[in-house]
Structures are given as structure tokens and as C-alpha cells.
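[RESIDUES AND BACKBONE]
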Amino acid sequence: MISQTIKSKTLGLAGLMIALLGFTNCQPDEVAGGNGLSDPNVDASFTIEAVSGEPNRFVLDASNDNVLKSLWNIGDGFFTGSFSEEIFLPDAGTYTITHQAYGRGGVVNETSQEVNVATSDPVAGNLIKGGSFMTEADQNEWTILKISESGTYFTFTEGSANVVGSSYNQQGLYQAVEVEANKEYTIDMKVFGNGSVNTWFEVYVSPVVPVQNQDYTAEGRRMGLSTWDGCANGQFEGKLSKIGCVGSGNTVSFDQSGTVYLVIKSGGENMGSTGISLTNVEFRGSAN
């Protein structure tokens, strides 16, 4: 009886294993083969609605049906947001808004829409001229600051400024801005590159006038990249205020009205295969 019981249990286990193997063999090998682990139809659609009485503010509403994460891009790179996101577009123009919806199995779908802004915000309109570097007129709003004799250079392309260099040389780029006393301003810009070695990229705001063939060492380093401090070592793209790792912050005010200078300087041992690029430079009064 004992041997018969053991034999019956053995046969039962064998049958169970055969059934499990048969069940496993019926499953598709590929995630996209219909096993329910992915959702290729994850909904990335969204609506844009203007905020009543606020011509520069809009609400983005996306579906949250089977969406695990939403990423938004309003022109400066993707950021993680909520399904309902309020955005502020202070400058007149046409903007492309893109939404990425992440579903099960890592499936990502994307949709884009355009929104037109008729007028610039009177408080937070951009004080920088030519901050997009899109045209030759934009580029001519900037002055190259020569620091090292050679080895590092700023150049312009349609839509960005780019700095390349090596051997610890550096060069700068600057523009004068008129400010009011005791008013709060914010500065920012989009930066991108493939990664650097022993490299710095620094942004200053100061009433100290830049002088050609001299380093700019005024107090007021507001923001920047530094491979020694852990950013720009690998590929990067986004708002400098988000991905930078040095500086006292991108909000600034001044005791006196007058002229200040937004100075951007960069250099290093090896600035990477593509150097460091920047666009969408902003200097704004803080919005309410």
C-alpha cells in the first residue's frame, strides 16, 4: 500500500509537469505576441485648453486609461508630468506640444499639437534678444568674449550656439540686459551635448562689464555644468536649471536699476565630439 501511494503521487506530479509544459508552450515568446504584458494601443492623445483671462497659460489634459507615465515637451526637452499639466508660454509665437504616454511592457506612444500664443506676457516676456539663434539677426545680438588665445570657439548654426574646444582653453558669449531695482528675474536656457571630460559651462549675471582677452570672474555665477560636480559627463539635454549642478540659482535681483550682463563661458580638457550647444536663452521677470 505504501509503494502504491508513492507511485500514484509520482504519476500525479508527472501529469502536472506535462500539463504545465503544455501550457507554457502555448504562450507566445514575444511580448508583442499577445500575451497581455504590453499595450501597443496606449493612448497618447491630449487636449489643450486656454486658461480663462490668462492668454499665456494653458492646461494640457491627457488620458490616464492604462497610461503608467506621462512625459511632456513644450520645446525644451521632455519632463515627467501629470496627466493634467498647466503650462506657461510667456512669449508670442507658435509652440509644438508633445506628449509621450508609457504603457504596459514599456510601450511608448507619442502625439503632438500646435498652440498659438498671440501676445507676450507683459511681466515675464523675454528680455534676451535672439535667444533662439535662429537667424543671422538673432546671432548678431550676441558678442563673443575672447578669453584664451585659441583652442575654444563659439559658433552659430540655425537654432543654436555651439562651443567646442580642448586643452583647457575657454571662450565666452554675452549680451547686455536692462533691469529694474528690486525686481526678481529668472534665467534659463536649453543645453545639450554628448558628454565631456574635465569641462565647465558657466552662466553669470553681473553689472561687471566683460573685457576682451580677459577671463570673466565676476561674482554672480548663477548656474552651469561641471564634470567635476557630476553633470555633462555623459549625454545630456534639457533646461540648464534642471540638469545643471553648479551655481547659486537661476533667480536673481539687483539693488539698482541699470545694465547687467548675461555672460556664458565654457572650456575644458575635452568638450566631447559635438561640444556643448545652447538655445532658447531666457531672462525674464518672474511671473505671478
